[in-house]
Structures are given as structure tokens and as C-alpha cells.
Amino acid sequence: MPRHPDFPVLLPVYNRLEVAFARGEGVWLWDTEGRRYLDFAAGIAVDALGHAHPRLVEVLCAQARRLWHVSNLYRIPELERLAERLVAHTFAETVFVCNSGAEAVEAAIKTARRHHHARGRPRPRIVTFEGAFHGRTLATVSAAGGERLTAGFEPLLEGFDRVPFGDLAAVEAAVGPDTGAVLIEPVQGEGGVRPADPAFLRGLRALCDRHGLLLILDEVQCGMGRTGHLLAYEAAGVRPDIVALAKGLGGGFPIGAMLATAEAAAGMTPGTHGSTFGGNPLACAVADAVVETLTAPGFLKGVRARAAELHAGLARLRARYPEELLEVRGVGLMVGLRTRTPNTEVAARLRAWGMLTVPAGDNVVRLLPPLVVEPEHIRLALDTLDKVFAELTP
Ligand SMILES: *Cc1c(COP(=O)(O)O)cnc(C)c1O
Question: Which is the closest atom of ligand 1 to the Cα of 256?
Fold first, then answer.
């Protein structure tokens, strides 16, 4: 069959930049022309330990020589090891491993619905938030809502009630007899790096307890050390019932996970859920090394120290360029800069100076450096931002 003359071979669902990368090391990337970039995008918070981290390369290569895939027909030691480690360091008592963030959120939605089903009273509805992003499957776009994600994909999945982010009274008002859970990103990522107030998260926990609801946290972006804690909920002192993870979990190898308490997961019996690739030994071996590294003594303390340096520098830039840098927000190494100039133009100018960032909603430029970033890289990033804001200031 002859090829269509105009239609691209890659399904045109992305607006790609004209850059391609050939190689990476730590916080650095080199494009195919040999230009070097300071990577403050980290594959959208995925390359948590930077590029080509020696320990991850070693673990992946060793596993690749041993065994790639066996399926969930059998026990998988690499998967068991990862689950044990996640349970040891979090609220979780049980873990389901899948391949992406959307799948982790899907597993969370199914687990919440089955929880109430198993207790004899289906309560399928879930309260979600405006500005949320939970992935691109039909259930997760239905959960997040919004024309941009859902237009033309109707009928959407029923059962989500959206309320303003941070509005506890609106959550209370949205809870009805069929409500079974609340689903929230502790720090909204795609929506523009909007952290939930810790008091709001504690309010949600209390509300969930009062109504017998499960609190589901989507930590796909803000989890895995990004906020300076292994998981973002720790800072608020809130115990979730279910957490969705992905992005940083594999440090660049595709993997997702749903963490849950035994009680929340009570409905998930054999045959209720599954995934062919979920628990793949390559992915699990790498993710286990990522979690081991993040939880090693001192690592997260280093992340918090780098974050403090970054936030202090950004506060100085905000004071210096108040007309251009309208707001600095975020937690740890998950930072959003709301700018006067369109965020894509700010990102393009930063890229021209050799620094990568990620645009987000609400005209925000996201800074998501690898968690192994060092003080000199923070200084370089601040200098580069300074240059661009100076360019943009008349
Ligand atoms: C990226 C993201 C997802 C979706 O993850 P995929 O791996 O792209 O499916 C879900 N939730 C949040 C908060 C995310 O940032």
C-alpha cells in the first residue's frame, strides 16, 4: 500500500520542538548537533536521578542479561523486592505495579469502587478538582474533566464530581450518598504547579473520615522525592488510603504503581485487575534502585537543601523583575514561575541559552531538575533565568 503523501508517520498528537537529544549525563543533555543543555525538565519529572545514573545503568544492564519478562503467572522476585521497599518507606500495605501514571490512577479508581462494593454498598462517585491532570485514558480524562482533554471523546466515564481546588466547603457540598472517594494531586502539575494547602489536605482527610470516603492522592508528578519528601503527603502529615505513582518511580524506565492500605484494597481479589507488562523485572529492578537511592540517608535532605537555594534565588529574581516574574510557586524541586510573557516564549529563550524547562497551565514555566542537581547547577539556572528576564524587561 502506498503511504499517504501528507499524513505524518507519527500520529500528530504532540507539538514537538525541533530538538533531538543524543546523550545525557546527570543534569546535562547533548542534542544531535552537540549543543549542551542544563536539563530542568527531566523528561517532565521522570529522570529523577538525572541521565545515565551509573547505579541505574548497572542494575538495568545486569537485569537485561538475566531475565526480561515472565508475566504475572509466576512470582516475580524483582517486583516483590520493589513492593517490600515501597511498603517499608510509605503508608502503604500493598502495591500494584503497572506501566504508567494513567494506569496507576485507573487502578486507584477501580480499587476505590471495589472497596465500597466489597463492603456491600456501592459508592462509585469520586470528587475531583478543577485544574487537575490524571492522565489520558478515558477514565482519567473523565476524572480530570476539561474541554482540552475530553472534547470529542464522549461519552465519558460517569461518576466524577469536580469542585474548585482548595475549596473544602465545595467538597463537602459535593459529597452525596453515592460518593466513595476524593482524588487529588497534592501539588497540581500540568495545571500550573499549584500546591494544595497542607491545612486543606488535612481538612480533606477529616472529611473523608467523617463520610467513610477513601482519600486518593495522585502523586504521579509530585511524588518520588520531588517535594523533598519521598511522597508529598508526608509534609502535610496526612495518611492517604491510596496513592498513584509513576514518572520519577522508574527514573526514566516506564513503570507506575498504586499504593494502598490493606483496608482500602480489600475488594481487589484475584482476577479483578491485572496488567501484562506490570511487574516487568527490568522496570522493577530499576525502580527498586531508584527508591533505594531516594531513601538512602541524607539524599532527601540534599533535595531540600537544593530546593531552599533555588527558592531563595527565585525570590531575588522575583524582587528584581516584578513585572515579568509575576509569581513563584511550588514545593521542593517542583517549581512554577508565572510570567507576563507567554510561557512557551520564556521556555524558548531559556532553551536558546542552553536550559530546558517545561510549560504548564496558567502560563507557568515549570522547573523540574533531576533530584541529583548540585549547587553549581542551581546557580547556573538562576543566572540563565536572570538573563532571560533581563531580555524581556523593557
Ligand atoms: C503525568 C501525570 C499522569 C499521567 O501519567 P502517564 O504516565 O502519562 O499516564 C497522571 N497524573 C499526574 C499528576 C501526572 O503528572
Answer: 7
Give the chain's domain count. Answer: 2
152: in domain: yes
- Report pLDDT digits (tens) over 37-90: 999 999 999 999 999 999 999 999 999 999 999 999 999 999 999 999 999 999
pLDDT-derived band at 175 (thresholds 50, 70, 90) equals: very high
Triad 122, 264, 124: Cα angle to 5°: 25
Question: Does a structural domain hold residue 4?
Answer: no
Give the CATH number for residue 146. Answer: 3.40.640.10
- pLDDT over threshold 80, residue 1: no
| pLDDT at site 357 | 98
Which residue's alpha carbon is at the smallest distance from atom 10 of ligand 1? 134
Q: What is the dihedral of CA 175, 176, 179, 183, to 10 degrees?
A: -20
Of the residues 244, 265, 294, the one at which a domain ends: 294
Residue 3, pLDDT above cutoff 90:
no
Shortest-distance atom of ligand 1 to CA 135? 4
Same domain, 193 and 87: yes
Confidence check: pLDDT of 230 > 90? yes
Q: Which of 260, 279, 294 is the last residue of a domain?
A: 294
Q: How far apart are CA 373 and CA 332, in angstroms?
A: 12
Instruction: Say whether pTM exceeds 0.85.
Output: yes
Is 247 among the residues known to form the active site?
A: yes
Structural domain containing residue 266: 67-294
Q: Which amino acid is at 277?
A: F
Q: Establish whether 178 is a catalytic residue.
A: no
For ligand 1, the distance from its centroid to the CA atom of residue 188, given in whole angstroms, is: 11
Per-residue 3-state assignment (H helix, E strand, C coil) for 266-290 = CCCCCCCCCCCCCCCHHHHHHHHHH
267 with 370, same domain: the answer is no
